[in-house]
Design goal:
The chain is α/β, with parallel strands linked by helices. It is 32% helix and 24% strand. The strands form two sheets. It has a nine-stranded mixed β-sheet with strand order 5-4-1-8-9-10-11-12-13. A four-stranded mixed β-sheet has the order 3-2-6-7. Strand 9 (151-155), helix 4 and strand 10 form a beta-alpha-beta unit. Helix 1 packs across helix 6 and helix 6 runs antiparallel to helix 8. The longest helix is centred in the C-terminal third of the chain and has 19 residues, at 268-286. The chain is globular, with a radius of gyration of 18 Å.
Length: 301
């Protein structure tokens, strides 16, 4: 089983072009939430670990997980409201966000008991590792599960508007790396963080995404492989990186490599296949409004 730990929220996506006050369409979202849904749609046994509001948005978020086949038994509930993210979509489909996250349910996440023995990997990222007090609980969970031998995926998915002290965050990020097996960064993330981490104490594998230009993996075992992006008509890029996370984990699981050692030891041909799958999956997500990752059947053939 794969566990995805982090926030769920509601993306408010503007409808119509050129309107000074466009209508906002609510969409289920949040980086970790999208990753969990994408994994479920790909057919992987997946559980979501978070704290979700008991309000109407929270009920809709849980229903979305269940419809994708995601186990919600690790989800805590709270009466606080659901976090809202107001998206601004550029002419090229890229998305920026403004967050309404003060006093919301997911911020109050508390460290759960150790994950079940059947869990092989756990993924973290985005707002949940920034917004306290929950961020410290997720950090403790990352360290604990890494030291139990689970594969850990980290996608920082940096949202600068949520980070009041960039230097303190960069230092904290560097402190996570010894406990990260697989790091996924966008070019924007890497630029903001000061470069792509490297070295013997870093992750077993680092995947750098470059949007339509594709992505590259570099492993501790000396493999470096790049694949081009998959062309698509872009509606927006919401959820594309989260879909990549899911495809990476799905590909590793399919090859029996869902461990730090497995990710480091895979050869270039296997990584090329995994990255190609991730590029194709992300292209499908980009072709549809909001975070709407593909099902396994859409990636066959």
């Amino acid at each position: 089983m794969i566990v995805v730990a982090g926030e769920s929220l509601i993306d408010l996506v503007p409808q119509g072009e050129g309107e000074p006050l466009p209508a906002l369409l609510p969409r289920l979202g949040g980086g970790p939430y999208n990753t969990a849904v994408a994994l479920g749609r790909l057919g992987d046994r997946t559980a979501f670990c978070s704290r979700v509001s008991t309000d109407g948005f929270g009920e809709a978020l849980l229903a979305g997980l269940r419809s994708a086949g995601v186990d919600t038994s690790l989800v805590a509930r709270g009466p606080e409201p659901t976090t809202l993210a107001v998206a601004a979509v550029g002419a090229d489909g890229s998305a920026g966000y403004g967050f309404y996250a003060e006093g919301t349910a997911d911020r109050l996440f508390e460290l759960p008991p150790p994950l079940p023995e059947e869990v092989r990997a756990v993924a973290f990222g985005t707002c949940s590792l920034v917004l306290e007090p929950g961020a410290s609980a997720y950090e403790r969970m990352l360290r604990r599960e890494a030291r139990r031998g689970l594969l850990t995926l980290l996608d920082p998915n940096v949202r600068p508007g949520l980070i009041p002290d960039p230097d303190a965050y960069r230092e904290r990020f560097a402190g996570w790396l010894p406990d990260v097996s697989l790091l996924k960064l966008s070019e924007d993330d890497a630029h903001w963080l000061g470069g792509v981490p490297d070295g013997p104490r870093g992750p077993a594998a680092v995947v750098l995404t470059r949007g339509a230009k594709g992505m590259t993996v570099r492993t501790r075992g000396g493999v470096e492989v790049s694949v081009p992006g998959t062309p698509s008509a872009v509606a927006d890029t919401i959820g594309a990186g989260d879909t990549v996370n899911a495809a990476l984990l799905h590909g590793l699981a399919a090859r029996g490599a869902l461990s730090a050692e497995g990710a480091a030891e895979l050869d270039g041909a296997a990584w090329r296949e995994i990255l190609d799958l991730a590029a194709r999956a992300a292209a499908i997500t980009c072709s549809r409004p909001g975070a709407d990752p593909p099902y396994a059947a859409e990636l066959t053939g």
